[in-house]
Specification:
785 residues, alpha+beta, eleven-stranded mixed sheet, 15 helices, 28 strands, disordered C terminus
Length: 785
């Protein structure tokens, strides 16, 4: 009880007076608004047509018509860091989110765990009487806690959301998502062949959560955090939505930029004298090296449209059509939310906020990609391979991402993209609508603001004072300020005087209309931060950061650089990390239990996330399945880890043992036994990889052998990938292959469960001992059990 009992207690209840107030649940003030917080993913400043972009979004237009568009709203340039700001009102490094949670480095600025003293908006509103729901991407939980053996302290349900349906990590397959329902993993309710797509599923659940409570307490307000995967890679959408855009990007990204800028000027999104930066605004491999002579990263190059062959242009056009279809499909699902609110007379008193977490993404590199996991493995994309998958783009067989040129196009008029602290990485759409509380409709606001400002804005609109203590933790001060002052006054000066930025080695500081920013390439491994070149822009009049005034105003530049260091120190921003994606992802991180030589897994259990599963990267390994097969005819998966975009599996087909290693989706390496499967009890069926080299460095090569007991029945040479199979999702399974499968060669129907026999267990050994010794040890172990 938080309140003292004010009734009267006697021996006899007839002589006692009750007091219900200490036991009552919190109740929001009468007339409190619902809040719908829509967080889009990798949607650049100029994707949607309401910001001058080429993609019609009629349902977002409905929100715009009843609200305001902010043209100088900013983010951190990356997903987890921005999302931490959007929910706490504190700067990302104070939230220990200097980078994505999968890239945590174990320092106070980047642990992947938001400190409890930085309470989140759903925790505050839930304690004040709002129902709190979340669907979609969380990405605020460290790898070590994205599993069923961990604490749920940093899952959505552990941080104030009453209901959750979505995915915990950075991204997920839109056709075969890595789903969690409240606090446990679940399979998608349908297959892609049955019409499944994640955005539709998330919207179904959002409406279900709201309706479940409204049927009981229609007057109780709700807070919905709606965070679809759109439009993060993989870019996947129903084909009919992709085909709506056929031919609309034929002119190429340079022409799209020109057309978009013209619309933006006409709409008043940017000033009439705004110019476009070059498509390679901070250099090319030929033009620039780092302070220590390091080459400019080829990943960050944009190919001129007229330098492309006809086939390449066709590929790049289709990649843009897929992305546009993904965005338009998400807009359609947002329309379903709006339809419900309008049909139930709730729209007038619902605060709707729409933002993106960072600018459009450049992770597709110069050529785009049919499998974004190549980027995470440090493996260049092949134009030949991309062209071969042209007709599959957007469907279940690709994990695709467009090339850098479209990132520049969808960030018009800014330079660079996600990861960079230029405006292309940080300047994003922000739409706020509250028909009952904002009389302006369809208007533009130019005040400078940041993701940290939305929590104070929500609390201001809700009439809620931030608590001093949450869960026993004294709360820290907000860095954000409310935007409510701008709702009715378009000319009001911004209440944000400055904002510091730091992401993957890129750094910037904005102060009173001026911005200093480094040209340090992200994920470059350059280091030499003290030798960085800083540029100076008067962004009040030069939003596209085209006219560097560093030479003309060296004193102002030095003041801003000093201010950056002061702000970085105050926000605990060090150490800086600009290592490559592969280096960052492969940094050792905590496990629930210490690494061991042998891991044992059982059928019928939830998949094991890759971060906590046996690590077979760049080493020899041995997989053994203990099975009973009473008669011929057994088939299906014994062991599987990963997906068609990177993974390996041991399975039975046509009465033969099979092993497949799918090398980043580019090369399916299959070994098939030369003898039929034996029949009997306590059989050991296994695959053994003996590493004998690396080509290139980090990519292990060796011989994969298949065994029935200690009898070799097949072998072949394979290569294994250096990094993770998936950035998130698609874990390890025994007796089936959930989600997207490693290979299409499996027998039976999805999830290709093992039938005709019984799997006792599967052991994976990474000790490096010879296989025969392991076999004898396993036989001895089984004899004892």
């Amino acid at each position: 009880m938080s309140k003292q009992f004010a009734g009267v207690i006697n021996v006899d209840i007839r002589d006692s007076v009750p007091d219900w107030s200490p036991f009552e649940a919190p109740k929001a003030p009468e007339g409190s608004p619902n809040i719908v917080y829509i967080v889009l993913d990798d949607v650049g400043f100029s994707v949607m047509n309401s910001y001058g972009g080429p993609v019609p979004t009629p349902n977002l237009d409905r929100i715009v018509a009843d609200g305001l568009r902010y043209t100088q709203f900013h983010t951190t340039a990356l997903c987890s860091p921005t999302r931490s700001c959007l929910l706490t009102g504190r700067n990302h490094t104070r939230n220990s989110m200097a980078c994505i949670t999968e890239a945590a480095i174990g320092f106070p600025n980047a642990s992947g765990v938001i400190p409890p003293e930085n309470g989140q908006i759903q925790e505050i509103l839930g304690a004040q009487g709002w129902n709190t729901y979340m669907v979609g991407k969380w990405h605020l939980c460290p790898d070590a806690e994205m599993n069923l053996a961990s604490s749920r302290r940093n899952w959505p349900t552990g941080r104030g959301f009453e209901r959750f349906y979505g995915f915990l990590g950075a991204e997920t397959n839109q056709w075969y998502p890595d789903l969690v329902y409240d606090s446990h993993p679940v399979e998608a309710p349908r297959s892609p062949e049955e019409g499944y797509h994640l955005t539709e599923d998330l919207t179904d659940k959002a409406l279900e959560f709201i309706k479940d409570a409204k049927a009981i307490a229609p007057e109780k307000p709700f807070f919905l955090y709606y965070a679809p995967g759109a439009c993060h890679a993989p870019h996947q959408a129903p084909k009919e939505w992709i085909d709506k855009f056929k031919g609309q990007f034929d002119m190429g990204y340079e022409a799209i930029r020109e057309q978009t800028l013209a619309r933006q000027k006409e709409m008043g999104i940017v000033s009439p004298d705004t110019e476009l930066p070059a498509i390679n605004p901070i250099g090319t491999p030929e033009s620039r090296t780092g302070p220590g002579g390091e080459p400019f990263p080829a990943l960050d190059v944009t190919l001129p449209w007229d330098s492309l062959s006809d086939q390449e242009q066709e590929l790049f056009r289709r990649m843009a059509e897929v992305y546009a279809g993904f965005m338009a499909h998400a807009d359609d699902q947002i329309g379903r939310l709006l339809d419900y609110l309008e049909a139930t007379d709730q729209r007038e008193n619902t605060l709707v906020l729409v933002v993106s977490d960072n600018g459009a993404s450049g992770e597709g590199g110069p050529n785009g990609s049919v499998n974004e996991m190549k980027f995470a493995n440090g493996i260049p994309d092949s134009m030949e391979e991309n062209l071969a998958m042209l007709d599959e783009l957007g469907g279940p067989r690709t994990y695709n991402h467009y090339p850098n040129g479209w990132a520049m196009g969808f960030n018009t008029p800014f330079k660079m993209w996600k990861r960079y602290e230029f405006n292309g990485g940080t300047s994003d759409p922000c739409i706020i609508s509250w028909p009952q509380g904002i009389s302006a409709g369809g208007e533009i606001r130019d005040q400078y603001h940041h993701a940290i400002d939305l929590v104070p804005t929500i609390l201001d609109v809700a009439g809620v004072q931030p608590p001093e203590v949450i869960g026993g933790h004294v709360q820290s001060d907000f860095d954000g300020v409310s935007l409510r002052y701008s709702f009715e006054d378009p000319s009001a000066p911004s209440t944000r005087p400055r904002q510091f930025y730091s992401m993957l080695g890129s750094r910037a500081i904005w102060h009173d209309g001026w911005k200093a920013v480094t040209t340090h390439p992200t994920l470059s491994g350059w280091s030499h931060f003290a030798s960085d070149t800083w540029e100076l822009y008067h962004t009040e009049v030069d939003r596209s950061e085209l006219h560097d005034l560093a030479t003309e105003e060296p004193e102002r530049l030095q003041e801003l650089i000093s201010l950056w260091y002061a702000e970085a120190g105050a926000n605990g921003a060090f150490p800086l990390d600009d290592r490559s994606a592969l280096e960052i992802i492969m940094t050792p991180r905590p496990l629930l239990t210490p690494p061991r030589n042998r891991y044992t897994y059982y059928p019928g259990l939830a998949e094991v996330p890759e971060s906590q599963a046996v690590n077979v990267r760049n080493r020899s390994y041995h997989i053994g399945a203990l099975v009973d097969i009473p008669q011929p005819g057994a088939q299906g998966v014994l062991f599987a880890h990963g997906s068609r975009f990177g993974g390996h599996a041991l399975y039975v087909k046509d009465n033969r043992l099979h092993y497949v290693y799918n090398f980043v989706g580019s090369l399916e390496q299959k070994i098939v036994a030369t003898e039929d499967l034996p029949v009997g009890e306590q059989l050991i069926l296994s695959a053994s990889f003996e590493k004998d080299g690396e080509d290139p460095p980090g990519v292990s090569t060796g011989i994969l052998s298949l065994y029935h007991g200690d009898a070799k029945v097949g072998e072949g040479r394979i290569r294994t990938q250096p990094g993770k199979f998936m950035l998130a999702g698609e874990g390890l399974c025994v007796g089936r292959d959930s989600g997207e499968t490693v290979t299409a060669d499996y027998p039976g129907v999805h999830p290709h469960a093992f039938t005709g026999g019984t799997i006792d267990r599967v052991a994976v050994d990474v000790s490096g001992d010879p296989y025969v010794d392991l076999e004898r040890e396993a036989e001895a172990m089984l004899a004892r059990e």
